[in-house]
Write a structure and sequence with these properties.
Elements lengths: L7 E3 L18 H11 L5 H21 L36 E8 L3 E7 L8 H11 L4 E5 L5 E6 L5 H9 L3 E3 L4 E3 L7 E5 L2 E4 L2
Parallel strand pairs: 1-7, 2-8
Antiparallel strand pairs: 2-3, 3-5, 4-5, 6-7, 8-9
């Protein structure tokens, strides 16, 4: 007698929402590539190789730009090569790639009023306007999408729901098994949720 079939976990792309192994057949494969390299390198080894080669070329270009020669050491500088454009923040800092994580922080205003902020849900394909409505309905309070200090959208929820919100997020956007199709839909894993406590980022679970 055959054993009971086990469910298959399918990783869904946060960019195009297709299963990761089908991204190359979708309309946004170029946009998906960075996400695939970081989250599904075993499915696209050629992308990883290309990214590694490009990174090596970028380092070589930076060395050339600083005047470091690969010649015989007679002091001659390397030929001028086109420099790769690097996005920089005010102050000259290089802009870092966003991590796939949800950040929850409690903010106290006017010494009494507490607001719970939620940042990063959109990185997992969650529509912030819909999430805001669900949060407001669940906790019977006001919730809205606003611009945060870094000009990125975040959800502000009225009240102190600092710890309760984690359970709600993982229950609303879970690693959800679909019996009809026999696979899991991966959205917001608990391991990707973090608190800000005393200025430090700590895992929520």
């Amino acid at each position: 007698m055959a054993g009971k079939p086990q469910p298959v976990r399918v990783l869904y792309c946060a960019v195009c929402s297709l299963p990761a192994e089908y991204c190359e057949f979708g309309p946004d494969f170029e946009k998906c590539k960075p996400w695939l390299i970081q989250n599904a390198p075993e499915l696209y080894p050629d992308l990883v190789k290309d990214a590694t080669a490009k990174e090596a070329d970028r380092v070589a270009d930076q060395l050339n730009a600083t005047g470091i020669s690969y010649g015989s050491g007679d002091g001659a500088t390397a030929s001028s090569a086109p420099k790769e454009e690097v996005k920089r923040l005010p102050g000259g800092k290089v802009k870092k790639k966003e991590k796939l994580e949800v950040i929850i922080e409690k903010v106290t205003r006017n010494k009494r009023k507490s607001i719970t902020t939620v940042k990063g849900l959109e990185l997992f394909g969650v529509k912030l306007s819909d999430a805001s409505k669900k949060l407001g309905k669940k906790f019977a309070t006001g919730a809205s999408v606003v611009k945060g200090p870094t000009e990125k959208d975040q959800i502000d929820v009225q009240g102190d729901i600092f710890y309760d919100i984690v359970e709600f997020i993982t229950a609303t956007w879970p690693d959800d098994f679909k019996p009809k199709y026999g696979y899991y839909v991966v959205q917001v894993p608990a391991s990707a949720i973090f608190f800000i406590e005393d200025g430090r980022k700590v895992p929520a679970v």
